[in-house]
Design a protein that fits this description.
Elements (H helix, E strand, L loop, with lengths): L8 E4 L2 H8 L4 H10 L4 E4 H8 L7 E5 L7 H4 L11 E6 L2 E7 L1 E4 L8 E4 L2 H6 L9 E3 L7 E4 L3 H6 L2 E2 L6 H4 L2 H13 L2 E2 L1 H12 L8 H12 L4 H10 L8 H10 L6 H11 L8 H10 L4 H23 L3 H8 L4 H10 L2 H9 L10 H6 L6 H15 L6 H12 L4
Parallel strand pairs: 3-5, 10-11
Antiparallel strand pairs: 1-9, 2-3, 2-8, 4-5, 6-7, 8-9
Helix pairs in contact: 8-10, 8-11, 12-17, 13-15, 13-17, 14-15, 15-16, 15-17, 16-18, 16-20, 17-18, 20-21
């Protein structure tokens, strides 16, 4: 962070905005309690930005000029686990509240996690990523009912512009490059010319290589979890970040994905599908995702979908019956089937996802055992034949399934 900073501007909060501030979850009660405790508290960051834009904030971001843990009892949150950055989050009713100590930051080297020092709200605003995220509204303490912002922040908001606050912003913390894409897509804002130039220089200069894998992975997962993830990755591609996808194909895949599928996993699979080396495999991609800090469930789902999409598409395209479609799918998760269907075999993928995968036999091995079939390969063959017939629309009732399974198990085909 630069050593010489212009003090933030300070303007009174007008009644309509103040009413919206006090209508946010626990804010009014918290402000009164913090004032009685002598704690200066501020509504900050994206929460203020969204209020100024007339949007509904996703959560409540607070900064306090005190140890954050001191605020926990006021929120009814007990003793939360505080991070090395002097932050914690808690749930008050249905509202997520993020609390941080007002602080300044320094970076021991490019891409390193920052070292934080307690500081007042003025320095706290200057450490932030973009000017439109550097607003604060005083809830208690010396700036009560005042809005603070770095010079030009309100102008940037009005112009729908993303501007960094200092020259080394992207080299200090290259995750801001991915956040630039995320906010551009979410808000419909554009980077200003200077910010875009700094971003392009940071990317060309290898700033991303200074980040750990888990920090990159975290930002990629946030991009994929956006309400409009395709726009987020399009913004990333426009900045020449190395994570891209085929937007048309991914749109088709998302249209195929059922409600119980994970859109974020599918989008990430579409991204990493492009990064699999020739002859690569899901296991190779899984190792990459491990390095990016993916949990095991997400890692396996993304690796399977990305690594199997083209081969699964070829098998689906050749399938001509329900049983053949099931054999082609071979246990693949819905994200993999949807992405494959966007390559080829779209109708077969749709049939599986909307119909066939929900069909279940009304008989079990116990029914065959009760009819005198011994445990062994014959029993399994009978059940497999009944399921294939069910998928092909032949054996729809329990009686039809049982009769067919018994014939096959007894060798009477």
């Amino acid at each position: 962070m630069p050593t010489s900073l212009t003090p933030p501007s300070q303007t009174p909060v007008q009644p309509p905005l103040w009413d919206r501030v006090n209508g946010l979850g626990p804010v009014a009660e918290l402000a009164a309690t913090a004032a009685r405790a002598g704690i200066a508290a501020y509504l900050v960051g994206g929460t203020v930005r969204d209020l100024l834009l007339g949007r509904e904030p996703l959560d409540v971001d607070l900064a306090v000029d005190a140890e954050p843990a001191a605020l926990a009892p006021l929120l009814g949150g007990g003793a939360p686990q505080q991070t090395r950055f002097q932050t914690f989050e808690t749930l008050v009713g249905e509202t997520r509240v993020d609390v941080a100590r007002t602080r300044s930051e320094s970076y021991p080297r490019p891409g390193a996690l920052p070292e934080v020092m307690p500081a007042g709200i003025e320095l706290d605003l200057w450490r932030r990523d973009f000017s439109v995220n550097a607003f604060a509204i005083g809830l208690s303490g010396p700036h009560t009912r005042a809005m603070l912002a770095p010079p030009g922040a309100l102008e940037d908001l009005a112009a729908r512009r993303l501007s960094v606050l200092h020259e080394r912003s992207f080299s200090d913390d290259p995750t801001r490059l991915l956040r630039l894409a995320r906010y551009a897509a979410r808000l419909g804002f554009e980077p200003d010319a200077h910010t875009r130039k700094l971003a392009e220089e940071a990317i060309a200069g290898g700033a991303l290589q200074t980040l750990s894998g888990p920090r990159i992975g975290s930002e990629l997962r946030l991009l994929a979890a956006e309400d409009e993830p395709l726009a987020a990755f399009a913004a990333a591609a426009e900045l020449r970040l190395p994570w891209t996808l085929d937007r048309e194909r991914t749109t088709e895949a998302l249209a195929l994905l059922p409600a119980d599928g994970r859109a974020d996993r599918l989008v990430l699979a579409a991204v990493f599908e492009r990064q699999i080396s020739p002859g690569g495999s899901p296991s190779e991609l899984a190792a990459t995702l491990d390095r990016l800090g993916f949990n095991a469930h997400d890692r396996d789902a993304v690796a399977q979908a990305a690594g199997r999409a083209t081969s699964l598409a070829r098998r689906l395209e050749r399938a001509r019956s329900g049983a053949e479609i099931a054999a082609a799918v071979d246990g693949a998760q819905s994200e993999a089937v949807a992405l494959a269907g966007a390559h080829a075999g779209r109708e077969q993928a749709r049939t599986w996802l909307e119909d066939l995968r929900h069909r279940a036999l009304e008989i079990t091995g116990a029914d065959l055992l009760a009819a005198g079939i011994a445990e062994g390969p014959a029993l399994g063959a009978g059940l497999a034949a009944a399921r294939a017939a069910l998928l092909d629309g032949v054996a729809q009732t329990r009686q039809q399934q049982l009769e067919l399974a018994l014939r096959v198990a007894r060798g009477e085909r």
